[in-house]
Design brief:
The model has no long low-confidence stretch (mean pLDDT 95). The termini are far apart. The strands form two sheets. Strands 2-10-9-4-5-6 form a six-stranded mixed beta sheet, with no helix packed on it. A four-stranded antiparallel beta sheet has the order 1-3-8-7, with no helix packed on it. It is mainly β. The chain is built from no helices and ten strands. It is 0% helix and 49% strand.
Length: 120
């Protein structure tokens, strides 16, 4: 089971980025996938999750700006981030599990993440 996050970078406030969570060694179709973020000194927070039947959840802090989606052909889950704010600056991680959960404590084996930096 291997997930790789990509798509982070430096963007000005108000800009957009699309993060990718690509899977290898297994098929994401039947898994719930969550996106999480972490800033130095703080714990990892769940921000978006998509269930195995494509029901989506977004935390209040990103609802209306971020959208999680799946590409079954590419075995990838995306996080489209629009109207970015400086407070969105963090390392972003994805993870997968059989049952839907927005709690990072329910997930194992974290990857390297991808850095998102939003300048004011």
């Amino acid at each position: 089971v291997h997930l790789v996050e990509s798509g982070g970078g430096l963007v000005r406030a108000g800009g957009s980025l699309r993060l990718s969570c690509a899977a290898s060694g297994f098929t994401l179709d039947t898994y719930a996938v969550g996106w999480f973020r972490q800033v130095p000194g703080n714990g990892r927070l769940g921000i978006s999750c998509i269930s195995s039947d494509d029901s989506a959840y977004h935390a209040d802090s990103v609802r209306g700006r971020f959208t999680i989606s799946r590409d079954y052909d590419r075995n990838t889950v995306y996080l489209q981030m629009n109207r970015l704010k400086p407070e969105d600056t963090a390392v972003y991680y994805c993870n997968a599990r059989a049952r839907y959960s927005i709690s990072p404590e329910d997930y194992d084996f974290w990857g390297q993440g991808t850095q998102v930096t939003v300048s004011s």
